[in-house]
Amino acid sequence: MKKYYMKYGLGIAGALIAFFLLTKLVGLHQYPILSAFNGLIFGAGIFFALKDYKASSDSFKYQDGFQVGLFVGALATAIFTAFMAIYIHQIDTEFAKAILDSWGLNFNKGALIVILSLFIMGLSTTFVLTLAFMQLLKESWNQRA
């Protein structure tokens, strides 16, 4: 199962980083609404990881598939969050302030809240998408007539 974590987790993280850098290049990286596309990237990566795991395993158990989905998404989330932490603290120190200004918050605009939000959103997206995809891919218990 480790090969699925690495292959798809790194693939999702790479796609997320590439998407962010592309929006940065175009000048649209400060619009949080574009992070909705991150859900599509997570969804595609988790779905293909589960589908690939199901195709290569003899018996597809729900708990094993759920584990694959969660670990793939958690690895991608950790890598992307680490990238964004480095980006926010080392490359563009005004990025977090610009994002928080668009949220309309009235408290100290530190970068930690943006990084923590990225991490929580990534894990919650992973959990919800894994639950949804496992409903599509699980083996049916219904008897054939």
Question: Could you characterize the architecture of this molecule?
Answer:
The chain crosses the membrane at residues 7-27, 33-50, 70-91, 111-134. This is DUF4199 domain-containing protein. This protein has 145 residues and is an all-alpha fold. It has one domain (2-26, 34-137). It contains 5 helices and no strands. Helix 3 packs antiparallel against helix 5 (111-137). The longest helix is centred in the middle third of the chain and has 30 residues, at 62-91. The model has no long low-confidence stretch (mean pLDDT 85).
List the helices and strands and how they pair.
Layout: H1 2-26, H2 36-56, H3 62-91, H4 95-103, H5 111-137
Helix pairs in contact: 1-2, 1-3, 2-3, 2-5, 3-5
Transmembrane segments: 7-27, 33-50, 70-91, 111-134
Keywords: Membrane, Transmembrane, Transmembrane helix
Pfam family, one: DUF4199
Task: Offer a quick outline of the entry.
By secondary structure, the chain is an all-alpha fold.
Structural class from helices and strands?
A: mainly alpha
Helix/strand order: HHHHH
Q: Could you tell me the mean pLDDT?
A: 85
Number of domains: 1
Residue share in β-strands: under 5%
Keywords: Membrane, Transmembrane, Transmembrane helix
Organism: Aureitalea marina
Protein name: DUF4199 domain-containing protein
InterPro entries: DUF4199 (IPR025250)
